[in-house]
Amino acid sequence: MVNFFRARKIKNELPSIENSKKFLKDMLIFLGSEYDVQCSMIEEFALWNLSDDIASEWYWDYFSIFVNVLLEDNIITDKIADEFKTIADEFDLRSRGGDLFDEYIWTHEGLKNHVFWSEQRQRAMALYKYMDKL
What we know:
Blueprint: H1 4-12, H2 17-32, H3 35-40, H4 50-57, H5 60-72, H6 78-94, H7 108-113, H8 115-131
Helix pairs in contact: 2-5, 2-8, 5-6, 6-8
């Protein structure tokens, strides 16, 4: 799981290209992993809030600085930046207060089986494959 405090430290230092790539790849690996793998990537005491923890990493205002570093240096294209934004937007739509909110999505059963999570995982893995070639 991406460490929020590590990201904040990187953000305060104006992230390098390499830090930005690593940070985003870490996010993509975590989101793109299957449920059992996601569970194994965090401490047991935090499992109760796993779906919220994953979604909170995808708050656009939080991680867009890393996308923008890569975009501004022509490391990624606008299309790839838009793919990152799409993942964030999908979380916004389905989060509490969003137009497509569904409580089931945020349960462990939903995290394992809901099509929303399957689609998000597919998006993340497609982006990871691209990012891993950089």
